Amino acid sequence: MRHILIVGSNGVGKSTLIRSLLAAIPAPVEGVLTKKAAPGPDGFCPVCIRSYHASEQFGEENRVGLCREGQSIAFPEVFDRFAETMQFSRNGVIVFDELGFLESGAPLFTEAVLRTLDEAPIVIAAVRDKQTAFLNAVRAHPRADVYPIDPENRDRLREQLLSDLPKLLPGLF
User: Fold this and answer.
1) Which domains, and CATH codes, for the chain?
2) Which residues of the chain have pLDDT under 70?
3) pLDDT (0 to 100) of residue 173
4) Contact (CB, 8 A) for 53 and 66
5) Cis amide linkage into residue 98, ω under 30° from 0
6) How far apart, in whole angstroms, are the C-alpha atoms of residue 65 and residue 145?
7) Which alpha helices (DSSP H) does the chain contain, by range?
8) Exposed, middle or buried by CB within 10 Å (0-12, 13-18, 19+), for 75?
């Protein structure tokens, strides 16, 4: 089976589309989520990572970066520490929401993601449209189908992918 990569800029609807796809797929889901919290007093928004089914939490132990208007600070050691816990059963859908540029300095994490793309039957991922060696390798993976998303095509893309899911993931339908 092929992997589905939804590629686009920040806030364009990648995660929303992935939630729609997952709701339509009759299979267990596991994976990794990153989420940006509200800005702190310094104007920086913490970006935190967690397992797909873990409760949302924003703390130093899972803070992978800080972002504000064109600035970002990555904490690659947090990505790499998290990579040590990334073990998936490989009998359902694995989600990465989202893969971005903060991960670039985290070799253990980036290797774990690329290994998952090699080994997992189905990966659905939100991928930023930035140019980094890691993101370029994800988008160029031989089992990946890349679906660019933008404000103009996101509704049409959602309908297309929902309609095509049985053909894209034949073992699940």
Assistant:
1) 3-172 (3.40.50.300)
2) none
3) 79
4) no
5) yes
6) 28
7) 14-24, 76-83, 107-119, 133-139, 154-168
8) buried
Joined tokens for residue 35? 């989420």
pLDDT tens profile 73-115 = 999 999 999 999 898 987 889 999 999 999 999 999 999 999 9
Residues 34, 98: contact at Cβ < 8 Å? yes
What distance in Å separates the CA atoms of residue 160 and residue 163, rounded to the nearest whole number?
5
Task: Report the SS3 class of residue 148.
Answer: strand
% of the chain surpassing 90 pLDDT: 87
- Round the CA-based radius of gyration of the chain to a whole number and report it: 16
- How far is residue 98's CA from residue 26's CA, in Å, rounded to a whole number? 22
Amino acid (one-letter) located at 72: S
